[in-house]
Design a protein that fits this description.
Blueprint: E1 6-8, E2 22-24, E3 29-30, E4 43-48, E5 51-56, E6 62-67, E7 72-78, E8 89-91, E9 94-97, E10 101-102, E11 109-110, E12 113-118, E13 123-129, E14 140-144, E15 147-156, E16 160-170, E17 175-179, E18 190-194, E19 197-201, E20 222-225, E21 230-233, E22 246-250, E23 253-257, E24 270-274, E25 279-283, E26 295-298, E27 301-305, E28 320-324
Antiparallel strand pairs: 1-2, 3-28, 4-5, 5-6, 6-7, 8-9, 9-12, 10-11, 12-13, 14-15, 15-16, 16-17, 18-19, 19-20, 20-21, 22-23, 23-24, 24-25, 26-27, 27-28
Length: about 325
């Protein structure tokens, strides 16, 4: 198992309260559990109200809930339709899926509506319709000041139709808005929000019609300043270009983990971008490389679960890993 030294600076809600940087030799570890989630990939994994949720994936799957306190998984309601290739967010006490694909490879279709899961009631509901001309899946999604932002994505499954679109949705006013396009299209990635900026890093331009499904990975990281309404590109490219990545915002970093590329095994690399400097850091590697899932942060612990251990969809897994984050408060 790899042991890597890294630094973490955490910025809390009050931006003036910055912790001291600290060296750590923490590493990812696989949890020995008595219960496990449904093995799946092209799903999402996120934290919501102190617990972790695994939703969607190929086939119609149940929602799986992980309680970090009891270290147990439980199965909840199945999704009303097959939902995959999406990045869910926690909003207004529920989990929202805004932009997803449905159906079999390679011509998966964009989902027409927002789908919402209520963990307290253990039930799904169909939300507002997504404008027909802007529907896509495999896109990044972030929440900022009550608005939901959709970044890039793909319109025609794995066949093609990747886009550089950026849209916002106001759930209160039920208003969609088209924003400036990103510098380049990308799909099979997750977005992060850091200090009012949307980070689009990792991903590829998937093109089964040219037999380039895994080839065209994107090294550049693009950054959208929501206040200024402008895009820029980070100084340095991501050290390990790959798609199918897991993404989370941690303090002042956008963390990109796992993924897939032309190599057979899924990636175990974890790398973090500091948008302020445009530089990347290497973080501890996963125990098991995986793609098509997500990252969830609860009480200073970073979790991942499920996904696929090889390129494509040939080896779905159900393991759960955790990394203890080194945080020193002032």
């Amino acid at each position: 198992m790899k042991r890597i030294t890294f630094f973490l600076i955490t910025v809390f809600a009050c931006k003036s309260a910055i912790s001291h940087a600290r060296e750590t030799t923490e590493e990812w570890r696989e949890l020995a559990l008595s219960t496990h989630p449904t093995a799946r990939h092209e799903a999402t994994f996120l934290s919501h109200e102190g617990k972790c949720y695994l939703l969607g994936g190929r086939r119609i799957n149940p929602v799986d809930e992980f309680d970090p306190k009891t270290k147990t998984w439980r199965s909840m309601a199945k999704s009303p339709i097959e939902l995959h290739h999406f990045q869910a967010i926690s909003y207004d006490g529920k989990i929202w899926i805004v932009g997803a694909l449905t159906g079999p490879y390679p011509g998966e279709k964009p989902v027409a509506n927002i789908y919402i899961f209520d963990p307290r009631e253990n039930e799904w509901s169909v939300g507002p319709e997504i404008p027909e001309g802007r529907r896509r899946g495999s896109n990044g999604v972030v929440l900022h000041e009550g608005k939901i932002y959709l970044v890039c994505g793909i319109r025609n499954g794995h066949i093609g139709g990747y886009v550089s679109w950026l849209d916002s949705y106001d759930p209160v006013r039920k208003e969609w808005k088209i924003l400036p396009d990103a510098p380049r299209p990308r799909d099979h990635f997750g977005a992060a929000l850091v200090d009012g900026k949307i980070i689009a890093a990792g991903g590829r331009t998937t093109s089964q019609e040219t037999k380039q499904v895994f080839d065209l990975v994107i090294p550049e990281a693009d950054i959208f300043d929501i206040k200024a309404q402008t895009w820029s590109t980070a100084i340095d490219p991501i050290p390990t270009p790959r798609a199918g990545t897991m993404t989370i915002s941690l303090a002042d970093r956008a963390v990109i983990a796992g993924g897939e590329s032309m190599r057979e095994k899924a990636h175990d690399e974890v790398e973090a971008l500091d948008p302020a400097s445009g530089k990347w850091e290497s973080w501890p590697s996963l125990v098991t490389g995986r793609h098509g899932t997500g990252l969830a942060m609860v009480d200073g612990m970073l979790y991942t679960a499920a996904g696929c251990a090889v390129r494509g969809g040939g080896k779905e897994i159900n393991s759960t890993e955790v990394l203890s984050m080194p945080v020193e408060k002032k």
